[in-house]
Design a protein that fits this description.
DUF382, 338 residues, 2 strands, two-stranded antiparallel ribbon, U2_snRNP_Complex_Component, 11 helices, Putative splicing factor 3b subunit 2, mainly alpha
Length: 338
C-alpha cells in the first residue's frame, strides 16, 4: 500500500467508497445558492441591463407579448465591444481549480482554507481580541506567547519560522525586558550565546561586511569581434614568441624541428599551380557559335501520284537539309532498312 501511494501521478481512492449511504446524500437538506456571475462580467453592466429589460417586459400587455412571439426583436441588450474585450481579455481572473489528485468529498466547501494563512502573521481581529495595537506600527508590540517560547523553545511544527525575540532580531527601536512593550529575555546559554538563532542580529551584519562585490561581465552576449582586434592578438602572440627570457637565454626548440630526411607532406599530395574547375571545351562551345535551335523546319513537297505504295501520301518532307545539319553538329546517323 505504501508503494502504491508513493508512486508518481497516483490519485487516492475516494473516501466514500465504503459508505453505506449514497454519494452526496447528506447534502439533501442544504439549500444550494443560485449561480453568481464572476466579477469581471458584472463590471460590464449586464445585470443592470437585464433588470431594466425585465421591468419593461412586465409592463407590456398580453397582446404585445403575443405579437413579439410571432415577430421577435433582436439586439435588445447591446454592450460595447470594447467593454466585452476588456472584460474577457484584460480583467478576467482564473477560477479556483483543484490540484492533481485532489478529490471532492462531502463538506469540503465548508472547510477552513488555511493555504492563504501564514504562521506568525496576526490578523486585526486577533490583535483586537488579544488587546494588541493595530496599525502601521503594530509589529513593534510582541505577542503574549513570546515569553513561553523563550522558555520552552520555538514550535516544532515550524522549524524554519523566524520569530523576533526568539531566533530573529527584534524590530528597530524596541528593547528586551518585562516592561510594557518589552520583548522578554533573549534565550542564551551560560556563555551568552544564542540558543535558537541570531536573536541579536550580529550574523546578518557580519555577512554584509564580508560581502565582496563580484566583477560582472557586462559585455553583450553573441557580439561579433572585429577583425582588427584579432590581428592585434596575432601580432602580440608573434611578439611574445620572439621575446627572450629575462635571464638572456633563448628557449630551445630543437624538438620542434622536422628531421631533414623526412617530409611532413606525403608525396603525391602537392597542390598544383592551376586547378581547372570547368571544362574548357564546354565553355568554348557555349561562348562560340550560334544559339542552338530546338527544332529544324523540314520543307514540304507535294507529289502528284500516290503510286503503288501501301502507305502512300500526297505530301512528302525533304530530309536532306536536316541530315546535313545533323552531320555538321555530330549527330548520330540513322540508316533505315529497306
Amino acid at each position: 500500500v505504501l508503494h502504491l501511494k508513493s508512486s508518481r501521478n497516483t490519485v487516492p481512492v475516494p473516501r466514500h467508497w465504503c459508505f453505506k449511504r449514497k454519494y452526496l446524500q447528506g447534502k439533501r437538506g442544504i439549500e444550494k445558492p443560485p449561480f453568481d456571475l464572476p466579477g469581471f462580467i458584472k463590471k460590464t453592466g449586464i445585470m443592470e441591463m437585464r433588470q431594466a429589460l425585465q421591468e419593461k417586459e412586465d409592463q407590456k400587455t398580453m397582446k404585445a407579448k403575443m405579437r413579439e412571439k410571432v415577430r421577435p426583436k433582436l439586439g435588445k441588450i447591446d454592450i460595447d465591444y470594447q467593454k466585452l474585450h476588456d472584460a474577457f481579455f484584460k480583467w478576467q481572473t482564473k477560477p479556483r481549480m483543484t490540484m492533481h489528485g485532489d478529490l471532492y468529498y462531502e463538506g469540503k466547501e465548508f472547510e477552513t482554507r488555511l493555504k492563504e494563512k501564514k504562521p506568525g502573521d496576526l490578523t486585526d481581529d486577533l490583535r483586537i481580541a488579544l488587546g494588541m495595537p493595530t496599525g502601521p506600527n503594530c509589529h513593534r508590540c510582541p505577542p503574549p506567547w513570546l515569553i513561553a517560547m523563550q522558555r520552552y523553545g520555538p514550535p516544532p511544527s515550524y522549524p524554519n519560522l523566524k520569530i523576533p525575540g526568539l531566533n530573529a532580531p527584534i524590530p528597530d527601536g524596541c528593547s528586551f525586558g518585562y516592561h510594557a512593550g518589552g520583548w522578554g529575555k533573549p534565550p542564551v546559554d551560560e556563555m551568552g550565546r544564542p540558543l535558537y538563532g541570531d536573536v541579536f542580529g550580529t550574523q546578518s551584519s557580519d555577512a554584509t561586511n564580508n560581502m565582496v562585490d563580484e566583477e560582472v561581465d557586462r559585455t553583450l552576449w553573441g557580439e561579433l569581434e572585429s577583425e582588427s582586434s584579432e590581428e592585434e592578438e596575432d601580432e602580440d602572440e608573434d611578439e611574445e614568441e620572439g621575446v627572450e627570457d629575462e635571464t638572456g637565454l633563448v628557449t630551445p626548440a630543437e624538438g620542434l624541428v622536422t628531421p631533414s630526411g623526412f617530409s611532413s607532406i606525403p608525396t603525391g599530395v602537392e597542390t598544383p599551380d592551376m586547378i581547372e574547375l570547368r571544362k574548357r571545351k564546354i565553355e568554348s562551345e557555349m561562348e562560340g557559335g550560334d544559339t542552338p535551335a530546338l527544332y529544324t523546319i523540314l520543307p514540304e513537297k507535294k507529289t502528284e501520284r500516290v503510286g503503288a505504295a501501301m502507305m502512300g501520301s500526297t505530301h512528302v518532307y525533304d530530309m536532306s537539309a536536316a541530315m546535313v545539319e545533323g552531320r555538321s553538329k555530330g549527330w548520330p546517323t540513322v540508316v533505315a532498312g529497306t
